[in-house]
Amino acid sequence: MNETNETPNPAAALETTPERAAAVVEAEARVALHEAALRAAQRGMTLIEIMVVMGIIAIIGTALAFGAVEIFGSSQEEGAKAQLSTIQKGLDTYYIKKREYPDRLDALVDAGFITEEQLADPWKKPISYSVTGAQSYELCSGGPDLQVGGADDICIKKQSRSGR
Predict the structure, then answer these.
(1) C-alpha pair distances (Å), 75 with each of 16, 68, 123, 133
(2) Which of 34, 74, 100, 131 has an alpha carbon 20 to 30 Å from 91's alpha carbon atom?
(3) What is the pTM of this model?
C-alpha cells in the first residue's frame, strides 16, 4: 500500500492570493465593526444614570430659584426706597411753591410733580402718606408683607426744623 500522505506545505499556506487577502480584510473589518458597536453600546447611559443627572439638575435649579427670589425681593425694597425718595422730592418742591404740604399725594400728581404710577409701591399697594406737623410728614410702603405698620415697612420721615 502506497499511500501518499500529503503533508501540508507551510510555505504554501503562507502564500496569499488576492481572494484570500480580500477575505482576511473583510473578516478584520467585521471584527472591527463588531467591536465598535460593543463600545458604543457600553457608552450609553442607563436609566439610573439619567435619573441621577436629572436629580442633580433639579437641585441646582431649586437653589438658583431661591437665590433669584432673594435677589428679586431686595431689588423691590431698593425700588421702594427710590420711589419714596422721588415722592419726597415732589413733596419738597410742592412745599417750596405752596408753603405747605398737601393733604394727599394726589395733589402732587395734579401739580405735575409725580405720575399716577408712582403712588403705588413695587408690590402694587398705595404709598401711605400723613402730614405730621406744619413742616413734617411721613411716607411709608408696607414692604414685603404688604401691611403698613409692620417691622418690614420702608419709611421716610421729614421732620420740621424745630424738631431736629
Answers:
(1) 82, 10, 11, 32
(2) 74
(3) 0.53
